[in-house]
Amino acid sequence: MKSFVSTENNQSFARHLRQALPYFEEFQGQILVFHLGVFPAPEEGSRIIEDLVLLNRAGLQIILVHGPGEPSIFSNSPSESHFNEIRRSIASANWELQTRIHSISQKVQTFSAHLIKAVPSEIHPEERRLPKGRVSGILLDPLHEALNSNKLIIIPSFGIGEKGRLWLLDSWETSIEVASAAHAKKLVHLGTQNQAHFSRLPSSEMNTSAMRLWLEQEKIPEEAGRVWQGLLNACERGVERCHDLDSGVDGSLLQEILTPGGIGLMVTNSDYRRIRSARMSDLQRISELLGESSTEKTVVYRSREYLGQHVDDFHVFCIDEEITGCVEFHTSRDSPAALIGSLTVSASHRNQGIGRELVEAVIQEAQKREFRNLFALTMSQSSIFVQCGFEEVEPEELPDWKLKDFDYPESRVFRFKINRS
After folding, report:
1. Is pLDDT at 60 greater than 70 in this prediction?
2. DSSP-derived 3-state class of residue 77
């Protein structure tokens, strides 16, 4: 029993590692900006800082932006003396962050400096004596120099104005400005205050158009709305992916960064879910998917040799960098009919519409290439082809080039008639 458990754990570890490696490859040399909305207390068991150190040690370029250790400090009546209290709180938080990082790994080098240029913000009557500012620029040269040395950057929410005057900045707005100016791959808000509102989101993955429309239509609590509007703004300014994570959930950061599913909100300005042509480097994953489904007797087994010879016929469905499904689009020269085969989706991603999207993509290609009929072969009892407009037919309806080597009596045959306009 002990040996079985050990083997099972090793297999689970190998599966998770295999899943994470493409993300490490994708993010090598990329800038990731993190906003520390809530200062993580070690006594509460938070491992967010430990996970940030891990990502830095793995070669990712990390920028961490923070405000005071106690955000509630802003709730006090603003005054010039109050500013000194906030300044001390931010400086203390900065020192504690560096101390914790070095206690986790002495090999990690940190870099913290005043890299933000600021000008005064609009002064409201009740805040006349509180020196609040807004970002007017980022000192990018020292920032990139530190990043290229693989240092973990820590930016406090201060800005330097004319004559060296210190201005208090909003740490979330500062994070957005830093991510945009540095052309970051990701911007991640780490907090706990929005967790209660995640259930109101129509999806955990939204592009900028969907997010903008939803925010315009929904009445969101002010703080959650401010964060989510910031994610949208950063995406529209060029940051590829922006996230809101509950930092109180152990492992939330690594799950969001290194797995296709994630556990928070992601706003993206790119095609996070996409279908593309298969590549030779995809053969191992395609073979695994088909092997899983052939064991379930829903598709015909395909050898690695076959896949290598027909890789150009395959399309794959990707969620981020992970291939979660595939389909074969088989044609024959001078034939007005084409064939769908090898349609499969990984067990962990079924019932999410992926199979249907793959079928619809092949239909579109068949229409573009002016085929008259599109046939589909499957051993599955799924109704997916009927849902996509196919009708079940007898095997004799197959085109001659396929009928002559059709030797799978368990297979069902479907046909889609293509209207030529």
Report:
1. yes
2. coil
Burial class (CB in 10 A: 0-12, 13-18, 19+), 292: middle
Report the distance separating Cα 410 and Cα 244, nearest Å.
Answer: 48
Give the pTM.
Answer: 0.67
- Position 75: which residue type? S
* pLDDT tens, position by position, 248-307: 888 888 888 887 767 789 998 766 678 899 999 889 999 999 988 877 777 888 889 999
In which residue are the tokens 């095609």 written? 271
Each as own residue / partner, the long-range contacts of residues 206-213 (CB below 8 Å, 24 or more positions apart, any chain) are 206/265, 206/266, 206/267, 206/268, 207/267, 207/268, 207/269, 207/272, 208/232, 208/235, 208/236, 208/267, 208/268, 208/269, 211/235, 211/267
Joined tokens for residue 254: 């690594």
What is each CA distance from 346 to 290, 326, 343, in whole angstroms?
Answer: 9, 9, 10
Residues listed for the chain:
421
Report d(CA 298, CA 278) in Å as an integer.
21
